[in-house]
Automatic annotation (TrEMBL):
Species of provenance: Methanoculleus receptaculi
Entry EC number(s): 1.-.-.-
One Pfam short name: Pyr_redox_dim
InterPro entries per UniProt: FAD/NAD-bd_sf (IPR036188), FAD/NAD-binding_dom (IPR023753), FAD/NAD-linked_Rdtase_dimer_sf (IPR016156), Pyr_nucl-diS_OxRdtase_dimer (IPR004099)
Single GO MF descriptor: NAD(P)H dehydrogenase (quinone) activity
Domain Pyridine nucleotide-disulphide oxidoreductase dimerisation positions: 369-423
Protein name (record): NAD(P)/FAD-dependent oxidoreductase
Enzyme class, first EC level, given as a word: oxidoreductase
Organism lineage string: Archaea, Methanobacteriati, Methanobacteriota, Stenosarchaea group, Methanomicrobia
Length: 441
């Protein structure tokens, strides 16, 4: 018997892979299968962002005289309908997992004590364990975070309706995505970032993101001293003494691994379980994957880690490769990017993206997105790419894989592209290929 603890992307994919290989697998999940990706984070962002983009598009078309009004939204109904869809998706995942041969146990508490496994305090013999217990929202050490009206991405469904003003504390992707969503919904949003908002993004991509966040107030290099209120949150006090009014506060201050139930394993100070490239922990036959081992906290990475762990449990040597992982941010457009190692001294080209589905009417506003590439001038290899356009996230799943395989800009010369398309990467790659060819001549 192999025990998998956690039914999110890492645990579920690992469990299915093991069961399909003929092993007896029991997956223990406290809540619902699908993990935070389905129930709290990725799909929630997708659902809310779809509505936000629709509202933004109708505003543009109303300004152009095409539509006569911008629709109002029912915030409670968004959550109600979204939960119905998530429940349906969870049912599909449940059926898919069981059909693969996995036994699923819901509502039970699992824990590890070294190599010993307990399910609801009953010890269960296991030849191997895959721990995929995920993460939770990090709560900053700020007075007032326990006030009614203060939320994380996990508790946001408790917000019954839209506030007039909202403060988002944080400077990462989640802070930017929720700030865009609620601003599109008509809320006055103020982002308060201790350092910078999306500070690690390429400067051009960051500029593209800030265009999408044009209606959001952004305070950078700003520290929150406290969150104030009586029966519920009223305002935020900054370190300089300034008071910022807020009817709701969203804490978007990162994630921490959920590893309290995993004892006897080596961990980092933040609780992340330490693993090697094979996903093996410090305890023999105990593996870990997904958010519980720490950053980058990305669903596709968690899935791959779960599969690598499963392969090694089966006795097949496999290692996790973290090179050239594509990432995306969902704002008005998708912002997607990927890079390989060794891009110093690269040829960098950028250009406005062509208009297409999702951006045609934005021509009137003077902005249809951005494409950017980095090329190794000696080999012609594409070593970095970024795009801020509708649909960029789908494009980069394939582009990052090709970059890892060593694709060169010369390989783009014979591509016949889909048209119309908002993808400007191939045009830049062709142009870069011409430049390098001319230099060789």
């Amino acid at each position: 018997m192999i025990i998998v603890i956690g039914g999110g992307p890492a645990g579920r994919l690992g469990a299915m892979h093991l069961a399909q290989a003929g092993r007896e697998v029991r997956l223990v999940e406290q809540r619902k299968i699908g993990g935070q990706c389905l129930h709290d984070r990725c799909m929630t962002i997708c659902a809310l962002n779809d509505v936000a983009r629709l509202i933004e598009q109708t505003r543009i078309q109303k300004d152009l005289g095409i539509l006569d009004c911008v629709p109002t939204i029912s915030y409670p109904m968004i959550w109600r309908r979204m939960r119905e869809v998530q429940e349906r998706l969870s049912s599909v995942l449940d059926a898919e997992t069981r059909e693969a041969g996995v036994e699923i146990v819901y509502g039970a508490e699992s824990r590890l004590e070294g190599g010993r496994v307990f399910i609801d305090d009953e010890e269960v013999r296991a030849e191997a364990v895959l721990a995929a217990t995920g993460s939770r929202a990090a709560i900053p050490d700020i007075p007032g975070t326990d006030l009614p009206g203060v939320y994380t991405y996990q508790t946001l469904p408790a917000m019954s309706d839209l506030p007039r003003r909202m403060a988002v504390i944080g400077g990462g992707v989640v802070a930017a995505e929720f700030a865009y969503i609620f601003n599109a919904f008509g809320v006055e949003v103020e982002v308060i970032a201790r350092h910078g908002l999306l500070k690690d993004l390429d400067p051009r991509m960051r500029s593209a993101a800030l265009r999408d966040l044009a209606g959001v107030g952004i305070r950078e290099q700003t520290t929150v001293a406290s969150i104030e209120g009586g029966g519920r949150v009223r305002s935020i006090i900054l370190a300089n003494g300034e008071e910022v009014e807020a009817g709701a506060v969203l804490l978007a201050t990162g994630l921490v691994p959920r590893s309290e139930s995993l004892q006897g394993l080596l961990k980092r100070p933040d609780g992340a379980v330490i693993v090697d490239q094979r996903m093996q922990t410090s305890v023999e036959n105990v593996y870990a994957a997904g958010d519980v081992i720490g950053p980058p906290y990305l669903t596709p990475v968690a899935r791959r880690e779960g599969l690598v762990a499963a392969e090694n449990i089966l006795g097949h040597e496999a290692v996790m490769d973290y090179r050239c992982i594509p990432q995306a941010i969902s704002l008005r457009y998708d912002l997607a990017f990927a890079s390989t190692d060794g891009d110093d001294g690269s040829l960098t080209l950028s250009a406005p993206a062509p208009s297409g589905s999702g951006s045609f009417w934005d021509v009137a506003t003077g902005w249809t997105g951005l494409a950017r590439i980095q090329v190794d001038p000696e080999s012609g290899r594409l070593v970095g790419a970024a795009a801020a356009v509708p649909g960029a996230s789908s494009l980069f799943s394939y582009l990052a894989h090709l970059m890892k395989q060593g694709i060169t800009v010369a390989d783009f010369a014979d591509i016949i592209e889909v048209h119309p398309s908002t993808d400007g990467i191939y045009w830049l790659a062709r142009y870069a290929g011409d430049i390098l060819q001319q230099k060789k001549r």
